[in-house]
Amino acid sequence: MARVTVEDCIDKVENRFELVLLASHRARQISQGAPITIDRDKDKNPVVALREIADETLSPDDLKEDLIHSLQKHVEVDEPEQDSGSMIAGSGASKTEDEDDMPETVTFDQMSEEDLLAGIEGLVPPEKSDDY
What we know:
The chain is an all-alpha fold. It is built from seven helices and no strands. Helix 2 crosses helix 3 and helix 2 crosses helix 4 (60-71). The radius of gyration is 31 Å and the shape is rod-shaped. The chain starts with 5 loop residues before the first helix and ends in an 11-residue tail after the last helix. The mean pLDDT is 78.
C-alpha cells in the first residue's frame, strides 16, 4: 500500500498549512457521508482526503471555497441596487468623488405641504424662563 505524504500534495497546494486545512475539511466531509472520488483501499478518511488532493480528483480551489463557506456565520446575498438616479432626481446637486463611494441608504417619508403646515401650527413655542 502506497503512503500519501505531504510531498505528493505540495505541488497542488503550495502552503502546507492550507493543505492541512483543506485535507481535514475534506476528511470531515467524507465522515459525514460525502462520496469519495478514489478507491478507499482500507485507508482512513484523512489519507483518502490527501490522496484525492494528490490525484487531483478534487480541485483545491473548490475545496477552499467550500471550507470558507462552511466557516461563515453570515452569508451576504447580492441584491440588485436601486436606481440612484430616481432617488436624487430634481435635487440638481452633483455628487463629488467621495460621495460616489458612499452607499445611499437615506430614505425620507413623503409628507404633503398641508400635513407639514398642520404640524407646524400644532407646535407650541417654548415658555420663556428668567434664566436667560
